[in-house]
Amino acid sequence: MFRSARVLVAALLAAGGAAVLPGTAVADYGPAVQVFLTPTPGSHVEVGVPLQISGSSHYGEASHWEWGEISFDGGETWDYLDLPPTSENWQYFYTPTVEGDLTILVRAHEDRRVGEPRAVVVHVGGPSTTRPDSCGVILGCRPFIADVYPTVDTDPRPVELGLAFRVDRPGQIIGVEVTRPGNPPTPVRVRLWDSTGGVLADVTGVPTYGYRISLPQNTQVAAGERYVVSYSTGGLPYRSTEWQFSGEVVFAPFRLPVSAGVYSYDDGFPTESWHNSSYGIVPMFAG
C-alpha cells in the first residue's frame, strides 16, 4: 500500500473532516473543487522531516477528479497522483532537503482536461507567516487527518489509543472527537495528557453526535508543548489506518509529529506506535 516516502496514497475523508477547517486554500476547477488542506500556507517546516501533503477533491454532478500531478520545482517536473473513483482525498509524503521557500503545485486531470495548478508555499527552516485563525469555544478547531484506507481492528483486549500533538498558541482543549466503528451508543473514557504522562483531564461519557466528548472548560494548553489525547476501547473494535502519520501534519493551529498515533495496553499513558498508524481520535481546540 505504501510505495515510498514520496508516493501518493489515496485517502478517505476523515469523519468530521467537513467541520471547521482553518487555513485552507480553495480553488475553483470546472465542475470540481480542489482543496489544499495540509500543510497550512505560510507554515514553518523542517529540513529532513517528512511532510504530509494532503487535499480533497469534491465531486461535481457530471464528472470527477480522476487523477492529478504534484510538483516541487515550479512545474518543471511532475509526479503522478492516483485517486480511485471512490475516494475524495489525496495524500503525498515529501521530505524537504534545503532551506528556503518551498512551492507545492498540484493540478487535476478530469475528462481529458488539465486543471490550472494550485499552489501552497511553506517556509523550510524559516519562520512561520501563517495568519492566525480564530478557533471559537463553540465549534473549536480540529486537525485534518485524511485517513488512508481505514480498517477495523477487532482486538478483544482493552487498549488506550491516542494522538500526540502541539498547538501554535495558548488556548484550551474543549473536547475530543472519537470515531468508532458503527458509532456504538456506549460511554467512552477520554483523557488529555501532558508530555510526561500527567493527566490534565479525564472524562467518561456517551458521545454526542456519535463521536464528541466535551472536556472541562479549564483544560488549558500552552503553545509548543507536546500533549496526547486518548480514549479507551474497552475491548470494542476500533478504527486503525496504517502509515497515516508517515509525515508530519502541519494544519494550523495543530502540528502532529511523525508517528503521532500512539497506544498502550496497560490503561496508562500511550507512548507506543505501530506502522505510523492513526486511530480515529482528534482534539478540539479553542483559542
UniProtKB/TrEMBL annotation:
<feature type="domain" description="DUF4082">
    <location>
        <begin position="152"/>
        <end position="279"/>
    </location>
</feature>
<dbReference type="InterPro" id="IPR025141">
    <property type="entry name" value="DUF4082"/>
</dbReference>
<feature type="signal peptide">
    <location>
        <begin position="1"/>
        <end position="27"/>
    </location>
</feature>
<keyword id="KW-0732">Signal</keyword>
<protein>
    <submittedName>
        <fullName>DUF4082 domain-containing protein</fullName>
    </submittedName>
</protein>
<dbReference type="Pfam" id="PF13313">
    <property type="entry name" value="DUF4082"/>
</dbReference>
<dbReference type="InterPro" id="IPR014756">
    <property type="entry name" value="Ig_E-set"/>
</dbReference>
